[in-house]
TrEMBL record:
This is Multicopper oxidase type 3. Residues 110-204, 241-349 form the Plastocyanin-like domain. It comes from Haloterrigena turkmenica (strain ATCC 51198 / DSM 5511 / JCM 9101 / NCIMB 13204 / VKM B-1734 / 4k). The keyword Oxidoreductase applies. Residues 29-68 are annotated as: Disordered. Pfam families: Cu-oxidase_2, Cu-oxidase_3. Keywords: Copper, Metal-binding, Oxidoreductase. Residues 37-52 have a biased composition (Acidic residues). GO terms for molecular function: copper ion binding; oxidoreductase activity.
Length: 381
């Protein structure tokens, strides 16, 4: 089990969390309900729950330091169920009854998939192990320059990894920055089934920030996941109508769960760097409360210092990657970071929910407000 707490990247240890909360996080018990709770929020009730209950459950995405594995990693596709917000609070429970999650090596399957991190100049060997899968897949990596046969598009490379097969892609780490990978077989469906993740190339001599975290934004039409789980629903990608909105696979309040969610945990005075990737099909204007930031990287390109300016909203289009940086210099507390298409900040008809996260100062963790949020998120310490 990972000892780090918070979003993937740097964060607190479990011991530091317990000290910071003074046990406040352990007060979670009975669940409170949000405004306008929606009994029709997507979940897997009835027969669908019975069908999906035998599937493994996804975990939070992990950071795989590929350099520490001699430059190689194996990804597998695992059919799983995905709890977006699994408890009865703030419009929950919400579950995608079937996803196709990526699993790295002997880790746990996750949606989004594991964050593959390497260093400029250190090429990766990524093996797609489709031995136990039921569907053909491929791997396509954005950003870096690679050979034709490693592009991951079956129709233009002639390479498809069928069930029972394995294939190794050579991915050069020749473009520093934050990138995106996904299955490129029947892309419109396979991304919506959860087959995507972040690929990070640190430049040579990279200096990490005090706190550094990774986030994947995603809009979902849960009908495709329910249909693949056997539910009798109509779905067409031409009539896609998203009803679930997630950050690292979770919706508020589960986004704030210290272990399964992705709270942005900071100390006053930290320099904070956030890497955001949009794996969905809609643009998401991401807004921070009480903090102004600079866009320092975009789509694998460094933004010149002369072009950086402070602002508090950045519109992340599909497949774009934005890296922002700010100083944690506000009055220590808990501040939202959310998509400002406000209907994306909902769980069904319940507000708030959806694509909402929080900047959480360690000094605010030993408060009744934080304890209440942990109760809504289902965290029991």
């Amino acid at each position: 089990m990972n000892d780090r707490i918070g979003a993937p990247g740097s964060g607190l240890s479990r011991r530091e969390l317990m000290i910071a909360t003074g046990g406040a996080a352990a007060l979670a018990g009975c669940m409170s309900r949000g405004q306008g709770d929606d009994p029709e929020s997507p979940d897997s009730s009835g027969d669908e729950e019975d069908a999906s209950s035998d599937l493994p459950q996804t975990s939070a995405p992990e950071v795989v330091q590929v350099d520490e594995q001699d430059g190689s990693v194996t990804l597998r596709s695992v059919t799983a169920r995905h709890p977006v917000h699994p408890i009865d609070s703030m419009g929950g429970p919400i579950e995608l009854p079937q996803v196709w999650a990526f699993q790295a090596d002997d880790g746990e399957p996750s949606v989004p998939g594991p964050i593959l991190r390497t260093t400029e100049g250190n090429d990766m060997e990524v093996t797609l192990d489709n031995t136990d899968a039921d569907h053909p897949h491929t791997l396509h990596f954005h950003g870096v320059r690679k050979s034709w046969k490693n592009d991951g598009v079956p129709t233009t490379t002639g390479v498809t990894v069928y069930p029972g097969e394995k294939h190794t892609y050579t991915i050069p780490a020749n473009v520093p920055g934050t990138h995106f990978y996904h299955c490129h077989y029947q892309t419109h469906r396979h991304i919506d089934m959860g087959m995507y993740g972040i690929f990070r190339v640190d430049p040579k001599g990279y200096e990490p920030a005090d706190k550094e975290y990774f986030f994947t934004l995603k809009d979902w039409d849960s009908r495709v996941n329910r249909q693949m789980a056997g539910e009798n629903v109509d779905y067409s990608p031409r009539q896609r109508n998203p009803d679930v909105f997630t950050i690292n696979g979770k919706s508020l309040p589960r986004t704030l769960h210290p272990e399964e969610g992705s709270p942005i945990i900071v100390d006053h005075g930290d320099t904070v760097r956030l890497h955001m990737v949009n794996a969905g099909y809609m643009s998401h204007p991401m807004h921070t409360h009480n903090h102004r930031y600079r866009l320092v990287e975009k789509d694998g390109g460094q933004v010149p210092e002369a072009a950086q300016y402070e602002h508090d909203i950045t519109n992340v289009a599909p497949a774009e990657r934005h890296t922002i940086e700010f100083e944690a210099d506000a009055d220590p507390g808990i501040y939202l970071m959310h998509c400002h298409k406000v209907n994306h900040a909902m769980n069904g008809t319940s507000y708030p929910g959806g694509m909402v996260n929080g900047i959480v100062y360690r000094d605010a963790m030993n408060t009744d407000v934080f304890a209440d949020l942990m109760e809504y998120a289902g965290y029991e310490g």
